[in-house]
Amino acid sequence: MADLLVKMRGDATSLPAKHPVRNILVAGLGGFIAIALLAYLADSLETVLIMGSFGASCVLVFGFPDAPFSQPRNVILGHFISTLTGLTFVILFGPVWWSVALAVGVAIMLMMASRTVHPPAGSNPVIVFLLQPGWDYLFFPTLSGAVLLVLVALLYNNLSRSDNYPKYW
């Protein structure tokens, strides 16, 4: 037990370096543009294109676009796999506590096995259990919203930065 408490104290590593103000502003503007576009299209088309987890996806694709978690395949497939897992579990087992927990665990394993880990997508099974939508939720908002988010990230990140986005497909 004492060893566990010692480990919980951490390594006393220094905080990460501060982000340059320009990077902070560029990331915030990117997130604003992406969610504004999704919200505008959803309103205009009278369809659902936004999920709560897309806000966290914006943190990654605009704040940390070079990270593996931020690459297009991770964003799109991570959201798709996790939502599909949530829908499958809620339909097969119902909205019970152990089913949502199992859905999250299985979604994590599937993303890791397919090399498509996108941490914000880990919340999708929970969102599915709270909303209990139909299968169409897999396409609207999950797949369509994730694809639109990546399209905005492709344009915005390549216009606002000197580095290429994405690092891989």
From TrEMBL:
Keywords: Membrane, Transmembrane, Transmembrane helix
Coiled coil: none
Pfam family, one: TM_HPP
Domain HPP transmembrane region: 17-166
Residues passing through the membrane, by range: 21-42, 48-65, 77-110, 138-159
Name under which the protein is recorded: HPP transmembrane region domain-containing protein
